[in-house]
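Worked example

This section walks through a single chain of length 216. The input is the sequence exactly as stored; nothing has been trimmed or padded.
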Amino acid sequence: MFTRSINNFIFLLVSIVSISVQAQETSSEKSARNRKIGIGYGWHTQQSFPGTSNDYIYETKSAHIFYEWQQWQSGKWTFHTSIETALYQVDHKLLNFYFITPDQENFQERRDRFTQARSFNEYVAHTGLKTVYNWNFEIKPFIQIRIGPMYGTQTTERLKRGFSFSDVLSIGTQYQVDEHEFIITYSLRHISNAGLKFPNSGHNSSGFQISYAYLF
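Given that input, the structure is written out below as tokens.
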């Protein structure tokens, strides 16, 4: 199922790129290349810095499709906004069942349920702001923040199923070859529901994402 979703992402990307290339009318638009569309693959875990809790396992693999455009430039600095949709496949297991205390409703049933290894999905829509330093034409380090709503298909001991928020802080670098761009990113991610439902301790994770983008 996850592989099929990635294939759908790639098909959608190729279709949009084809339409975008056909829509370019002038040579000046081609040379500007201040917009991009791309795909990415990421992997994150709670059990790495700065999370490193031994109480539970929370690991994700994710597929992303994004569209980004440059807003303005100041010297070697450029500032960008983006929109992104992502699918996170989550592997989760509670290791320390004492996290669920006896004063909680149905605490024994919840202990039994969450200490079993489970997999589920998170569907996310991010909007982002990115600052890029154009070191030279090819190499461009950046910092980025992405926030947006998400929907989780399962409840964990730390987060209720359903509507939540996904916040991502990233640093990375872009390597450009003509209209092609290759991106590697290190990210810190936090998800929670802002206290709308119980539980809401949230999940934290960190990891890497590799991406390809077409510039136009």
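What to look for: The chain has three helices and eight strands.
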